[in-house]
Sequence to fold (306 residues):
Amino acid sequence: MASVGQVLAGRYRLEEQLDQGAVGPLFRATRADDGASVAVRVAAGVAESGEGAAAAAAESARAVVGLQGPCTARLLDVGQTDEGVPFLVYEPVEGWRINTLLDKTGPVPPEHAASVVDGVLQSLEQAHGRGLAHGWLTPSSVYVGENPDGSDRITVLDYGLPQQGAAPPGAHLAPERERGDPATPASDVLSVGLLLADLLTGSAVGRRRPEGDPVAGAPLPPQVKDSAFAEIVQQAVPADPGQRFGSAAAMRRALQATAGGGGAAAQAQAGPRVRRYETPIRSPAWAGAGPALLEPAGNGPADPLA
Fold:
């Protein structure tokens, strides 16, 4: 297993482990050739190792080359550890991952829960528009920080992970994904619905679902049922994909209508976001003080996959 101090593929020195996500550990790393700070996800939780793993990881990565936006962590590189486990390299991220945020704050204020989910949907809308699905969206895939103007800054990681692996513990996956079916926009929508429920309740609703039947029949927690977003969660999480929102864009429209047009989308429509990396990003004020998980690195590292 990858560990701090290890150099992956002779290029990336792992400086600090940031989390142990459901899909595998995330590290702050330094790129050897130019000293750039990057984020490295070692896909131990979802990817098979050994023969064929590198080729499968590279194929998944190639599909998301060029996918970027104000709410998406850009994929920069892909490789394989000495043990044969694929790793993916992303531009730096700052802030709290959702798991850490919930541990620190408990329930998130509804207006900020809507802003976080709006950012996630904005990222997915771009991906779905290119015919791509995330497939492994979990609370550890989403980071929340604060722009200098006080608006929420949302970053979605883990695009490009191999899609053929088994569901890791704690994954917010749709029933069809847990059966091994390919990722689709509908499966991503369900994951976002569970993420919204997590934020409103302050705990991982997705990990409390009945084993073997992760969505059907699970009652909404009171914090969700009594909120303005209950109908949105209900329409996102049916076990039947055909009963969910038809797309991230449709769910986003419903969310914005319920929230009165607030969230990351309204912030983006009001004007351009602050360029990534120009100013250190703080953790959101409503979460209290917290460290930037990865320091900005100029205007970001170059993209060898482009």
The domain at 7-90 is CATH 3.30.200.20 (Phosphorylase Kinase; domain 1). Residues 207-214, 262-283, 289-306 have pLDDT under 50 and may be disordered. The longest strand covers residues 12-21.
